[in-house]
Amino acid sequence: MEGPVGGPAKRPAHRLVEAVVAGYGRLESLEIDPRLLRCGTGAIADHVIEAVRAAQDDELRQRQELLGGDIDQAATHRQLEAVAAEAWRGLDGMIGDLDALTRRFDQR
Length: 108
Hints:
By secondary structure, this protein is an alpha+beta fold. It contains 2 helices and 3 strands; from the N terminus they run βββαα. The chain has helices spanning 41-67, 73-107, and strands spanning 9-13, 17-21, 27-32. It has a 3-stranded antiparallel β-sheet with strand order 1-2-3, covered by helices on one side. Residues 1-6 have low confidence and may be disordered.
């Protein structure tokens, strides 16, 4: 089952496990059919991984559709790093200005 574009994405794995993820693949809920408990931990883990990955793939596809196409994650990462570096430079400048003002007040 699939959520609306921009909404939570759901995906059952053989209808025994259902994972729901929200923005950027954050796991919101996980439901495991009690019948699966008889299969052992290895089988449960396999079904959980399958359901979560499928739900994450659906969420990514929905996000890409919403944004109008494929997301260049490397380019986005570089842009975010540049913005973060600029923000730190600005913050560093503000701290320097505050330090200078504090020293001027202390000298009076």
